[in-house]
Write a structure and sequence with these properties.
The chain is α+β, with helices and mostly antiparallel strands and about 450 residues long. It has one domain: Outer membrane efflux proteins (OEP), CATH 1.20.1600.10. Helix content is about 60%, strand content about 20%. It has helices at about 30-40, 40-65, 135-200, 205-240, 265-275, 275-295, 340-360, 365-410, 415-450, and strands at about 5, 10-15, 25, 70-90, 105-130, 250, 255-260, 300-310, 325-335. The strands form three sheets. It has a four-stranded antiparallel sheet with strand order 4-5-8-9. Strands 2-6-3 form a three-stranded mixed sheet.
Length: about 450
Amino acid sequence: MVKIVVGELSVMIVLLALSVQAETLHLTLDDAIEMALSDGADIISKEVELTQSKADYLSGLGGVFLPTINTSLSFRRQWGTSYSFGDFNYYGGVDYVPGYQGEVYNSVMFNGDSGVSNTYTYSANLTQPLVSPSAMFAYLSARSSYRASRLKYEDATAGVIIGICDAYFGVLKAGHILEASKRAYELSKKHLEYAQRLYEMEGVSQIDVLKAQVQLSEAEIDLIEAEGALKRAMMNLNDTLGKPVETELILEEVPIEIEDYEYEECLEVMNEVKRYEEMYKSEDASALYASLAGWSMHLPSLYGNFSYYWNNERFTTENWGRNDGYYIGLTLSLNLFDGLSTEAGIMRARASRRLSKNYADRAKELAEMALRNAYISYEEAKKKLEVTMNMLETARMELNLAERRYELGAGSIMELTEAQAQYLSSVSQNENAKYSLLTSEMELKRAMGIEVR
């Protein structure tokens, strides 16, 4: 593998912020990446999705293999009056005497008993799933979904790294173009002064002075645009890092290394890692198990139960064994009708399965297509950099030559203006090509499923 180093790490670019009282950050590219991965809004959202998927997986795991245990302690206090009613015979105001034929009165007997009663009740229950098809398929679906979420998180992390690198490179690129614009502006001022001196000595016509003034105005416009581009790039980087937009940045330059990748080698690495293929297949498996979980809701489930209970008028351990008991049993549960919620779940799962199965069937094809696109982009960026490097060197030589010719009186202001414009264009194209190469290489590594740094 061939490497050509274009830049050096010792180069430092100081980028002044919009406020002189702003916080100052000295950043390397690795520092920016770590900040984005720890505090970036994009990565936080992906971490939340991964955590939710893991929670579903753990919930499904517990629903299949682990028992549910609960305990309760209750107290009941009852007070009031109890009544009993009955009939008795009362004869003429005297006690009943056998043979006595006096007047008989039917009356009601009333007995009242008022008081307070307390009852303490303690219970402990354990339920263990023994056979539950719906819970098992739900667990398998959550497990596959969690695996897909982990792979998505890895891919999202790569995307966040590429995004922060692109913002970082944008600031460096804007800084380089600003430096070139400043140089062009200073040269234009020098050219105008020189043209004015020649005009005073009648060495050139007034039109040359006017052209030099136009050249200076164009250079000033380019400088203003370059300053605005740098401020916007700085704001974008600060926003990506989650920092105030007025933060002052001191960025370290990044070396450009041109590496030769062979497509077959990249394809071999991708087939070994299988990130995207496994991601698509895991999503399809999750949808399949979710559909089966819905269908299996119509199947019976078997649970084992153990319960222990105790109650007494006083909460004491004295004579505890006389007031307690337990039972062991089995529960067979069958869902007969739940208001069409099961059918609705099956319908949703089947629709999701159609889409995931399509991606799973084309997983290898889609992964290879993404890799080929990334490889083509990298080769294109590499060739562009080689061309723009040569073009920049030629434009620099042409500008120097045009300046000397103009100073010697052999060249025109128009020739000098064209050379300067070509030089600025070459600088801009070279900067774009340099950092496009870095981002395209990261995209290629992402397509292979390996670390992008």
